[in-house]
Amino acid sequence: MSKKIAVIGAGISGMSCALLLAEKGHQLHIISKGFSPNITSNRAAAFWFPYHIRNDKRGIDWCIKSFEYYKARCSDETGISMKKLVKAIKNNTGDEDTWLDFMPENSVKLLKNEQAPKGYDIAYETHVPLIETQIFLPWIRKQLEEKHATFKQEEITDIEAINKEYDVVINCSALGSRSLCNDTSLIPVRGQVVLLEPGYPDHIFLDNQTPAYIVPRKDATIVGGTYEENVFEERTEEESLKDILAKACSVFEGLEGRKVIGNWAGLRPFRPQVRLEKEEGTNIVHDYGHGGSGYTLAFGCAEEVVKLVEEI
Ligand SMILES: Cc1cc2nc3c(=O)[nH]c(=O)nc-3n(C[C@H](O)[C@H](O)[C@H](O)COP(=O)(O)OP(=O)(O)OC[C@H]3O[C@@H](n4cnc5c(N)ncnc54)[C@H](O)[C@@H]3O)c2cc1C
Hints:
7 helices, alpha/beta, binds flavin-adenine dinucleotide, Rossmann fold, 312 residues
């Protein structure tokens, strides 16, 4: 039976839930304070990688389902493509030992030590989806509009009140849940990046520990980054941008002298664990707190949201 569903939030979490629910024939109403391109989901790099999932084993299924979702939809129209990714590790920084558990089976190759990027001791090679947010988020919106979903700009301050107007409410408000659900376990983790003219390198480079990453998008090469816990100001700082560029140029000399075309900062909605559950005694399903892996988890989480909605 078709349900009247409100989704709070128009980032990747809300949009992925809305799309999968609309495809099941439900009536979708997306209500959000902000829309693309003015939200965190437009600040992501955004490649698929199990980043800081904190050994939450539920994440294995969410990661793999999202990987398959993106891989099956690679095209210019969606803005998704498969890219080579090199993950590099310095012996003295250690590694998040769990990330390999979250990768698709047989997808990772350990490189020979001499093949590791400059300054690194160990490197792995894999291929992952790169989601160009500036193309993909409008693409999802178009799919939803074709399915007669509605979009309304509004800040929700009382989730219980809106619950009365809909059969189901899906809460994908990310950091907004700090006040909406009084959830102080949710904190912002700021990430700053530099944008260089596009064209080099041809693959994604990742060093989670420092953290440093280089992502070749069509419109820019994104060079990151920082991981600043509990920083609420969504702005870049000159010193950090200089450090980010210097670190990247020390690994890829070919980046030196490439034109800087911009920068941005975004606030990752970090929570010790993702909140994905139906709230007892209500018709509210929560899906928030994806930290630095919102794209990596989105469609797997959305599939679980669909299951929870169908049980209501
Ligand atoms: C620099 C950087 C790089 C990143 N790189 C990657 C990457 O490579 N891969 C990856 O998987 N992830 C990456 N991330 C993480 C990713 O961006 C986030 O996990 C993801 O965007 C979270 O999506 P979301 O939809 O949950 O939240 P958001 O995008 O923040 O969306 C929340 C939505 O809720 C709305 N909202 C909030 N409060 C209210 C309210 N009270 N009422 C109504 N609406 C409300 C907002 O306006 C917004 O539309 C990166 C993040 C940063 C900052």
